[in-house]
């Protein structure tokens, strides 16, 4: 937490690099509202003008433990806040504590301002239903392959299918479980979507 010279109230700030090229995305919780600078754009959104926040778990190949907050403005526009920052071409560093503190403080300030923002967690309902349908089709196909491998005596193939299914369930299971679509309140943030 930082205190600026112009104000007596504390200013909570957070920054991350979305890519190796370009400047960092910077956010500050000021007395007037959420101040942001990202990708050559900037703005100040009053807390009561923020129309919604969506928290989600978004792992990537470079960082398996990555969280995202999408903040929407009543007049249009959306900014994304990520819990990781690019360090080098091969390293994306987590910023878990800073991200969590910033998101919790943003919710507190919005609640104090009497915000009526829509607070959602996980993927959208349509996207989540499509993911579940895809996983169901994949499960049926893998089960069919496993049965076929066992029927023809290809035990090495059956072991490979079981190993692949276990690895897939481990990798995708957390993503699916954490990103169940749901609503939450200012005082009950979803713990599974905060580092």
Automatic annotation (TrEMBL):
Presence of the UniProt keyword Transmembrane in the record: yes
Keywords on record: Membrane, Transmembrane, Transmembrane helix
Transmembrane segments: 128-149, 155-177
Name of the protein this chain belongs to: Bll5862 protein
Source organism phylogeny: Bacteria, Pseudomonadati, Pseudomonadota, Alphaproteobacteria, Hyphomicrobiales
């Amino acid at each position: 937490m930082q205190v600026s010279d112009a104000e007596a109230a504390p200013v909570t700030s957070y920054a991350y690099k979305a890519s190796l090229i370009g400047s960092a995305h910077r956010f500050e919780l000021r007395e007037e509202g959420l101040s942001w600078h990202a990708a050559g754009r900037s703005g100040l959104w009053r807390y009561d003008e923020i129309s919604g926040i969506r928290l989600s778990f978004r792992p990537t190949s470079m960082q398996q433990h990555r969280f995202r907050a999408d903040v929407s403005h009543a007049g249009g526009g959306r900014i994304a806040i990520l819990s990781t920052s690019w360090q080098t071409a091969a390293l994306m560093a987590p910023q878990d504590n800073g991200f969590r503190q910033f998101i919790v403080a943003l919710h507190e300030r919005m609640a104090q301002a009497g915000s009526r923002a829509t607070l959602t967690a996980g993927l959208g309902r349509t996207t989540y239903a499509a993911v579940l349908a895809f996983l169901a089709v994949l499960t049926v196909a893998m089960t069919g392959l496993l049965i076929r491998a066992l029927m023809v005596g290809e035990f090495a193939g059956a072991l490979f299918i079981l190993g692949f299914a276990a690895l897939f369930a481990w990798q995708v299971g957390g993503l699916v479980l954490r990103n169940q679509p749901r609503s939450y309140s200012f005082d009950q943030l979803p713990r599974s979507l905060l580092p």
